[in-house]
From TrEMBL:
Keywords from the UniProt entry: Glycoprotein, Hydrolase, Membrane, Secreted, Signal, Transmembrane, Transmembrane helix
An example molecular function term from Gene Ontology annotations: phosphoric diester hydrolase activity
Compartmental location: Secreted
Domain of life: Eukaryota
Protein name: Acid sphingomyelinase-like phosphodiesterase 3b
Signal sequence bounds: 1-26
SUPFAM superfamilies noted in UniProt: Metallo-dependent phosphatases
All copies of domain Calcineurin-like phosphoesterase, residue ranges: 31-148
Predominant cellular place of this UniProt entry's protein: secreted
InterPro entries: ASM_C, Calcineurin-like_PHP, Metallo-depent_PP-like
Keyword Membrane: yes
Lineage of the species this protein comes from: Eukaryota, Metazoa, Spiralia, Lophotrochozoa, Mollusca
GO cellular component: extracellular space
Species this chain originates from: Plakobranchus ocellatus
Coiled coil: none
Amino acid sequence: MWNILYTLFLRILLFFGVILSGEAHADVGYFWHVSDFHYDDTYGKTGQSCSFPVSHPGPFGNGSCDSPMQLIEESLKSMASIKPDADFILWTGDNAAHIPTPEFSLKRNLYMINAVTSAIKRNFPNTLLIPSLGNHDFFPADYTNGTESELYDSVCQMWSAWIKDPEQINNCRRGNHHRPRLPDHSRHYECRSNSALLPYPGNHHRPRLPDHSRHYECRTNSALLPYPGIIIGHVSPIILAIMNVGLILPSFPTQVIIIGHVSPTIPAPFVLNWFYSQYQKRYVKLMTLFSDLIIAHHYGHEHKDSFKILQRDENGSEASPVFLAPSVTPLRGIQPKGEQGTRHNPGVRLVKYDRQTGKHLNYRQFYTNITEANHLGRAVWRELYSFQDAYNVPDMSVSSLRKILKDMAKPFSLSMLKYCSFYTVTPPLGEVCSIKQQGAFWCAAQLTNVQETEDCIFRYIHGFKANVRSWFCARERVVCKNSKSQNDRKS
Ligand SMILES: [Zn+2]
Ligand SMILES: [Zn+2]
């Protein structure tokens, strides 16, 4: 009798515990975000993507070259072992290697996209894939005139397992609206693509997420919002306007997740505008105008890990959170003066979200160290950080990002040091960023104009120097002309 009462008592406690913790109503789901595989089929042989000669490339990759297939397979296998039943995968493009155009061809370009597509299918045969092409999926790279019929034809065929419906596959090939359906009867999605992948911000796919997502959807923008590296065959302001209108159709759902290859935000620490400024301004304006409908943006392209707030102005009005996933390729690239770019590890990202609202709750960033993998003969994938835990925030919302950025406003703050390390997909034990880099991270996380970002960095550095000087003057009790501490003493 006492046992029964005791059990009943425990169950009541458990019931109220669950209610109070909110777990009873939680419908938590997960999705992967993976980007920039950059497969080099010549790795270990002629190494056409290698920016510097490599005498002994390891089997899992080398920082001077794009990815061997073994690294791509290992990254997907690790994803499948960590979370095989994710609701969907965001795949934000750049599958071909960085190979100079004279040595490359559309045929090889398509071969690389197909190789990556097959690798994803092998590891996630039943998972919804939401793709976006990158500037390195086109041939020549960075070039589009909107009429790459062979490219679209081949890519739509490769992705037909996800699109499924023959009529929709044909639509996809023609670059018209297409509505692919997944094999799984309970998981189908709709994908609308206007005139295939013209380089316009409004040119998007509209894949329908699993059935539980009644209140939000996912938009994937064209990879090729024009930026100075891109040669545009034809840009019509009228088409651009029409495409933009597509974003405000009456059927627009309550909430949207935006995905694409290139973010309209400013990269850091190398401050530049990826886009022709007129398109970037327009895209930012559009995105901020509808920010109350946008849950989050997810992009790739920069090969590094970062987050930003896309907002109308510095006051923070009309804002939405932006997350950039690091690449799988470990290629360091070449900096403007010819030296090797920053070392970074390959990474994959698992996002936790509320299935009913689409609200992003947390993400876990995973990475592998290829130097270690080459030494061990196997790749070990570890969790680099959990967003919630690392930054001590409740979720991935704009208000959480603001809280982190408030801390990052202080140079060498804990949040800043973490952001700096995570940027290169590295545990926060390595080199500390310079004050200039910190200023760039902080300013570029909030601004979308190059000049304003440069001015902001100048103020960040100047403010830091003034504080150091002030501290020095106060501590050493020396007279420091024009210093804040001197002024403070006078007052
Ligand atoms: Zn890339
Ligand atoms: Zn790219």
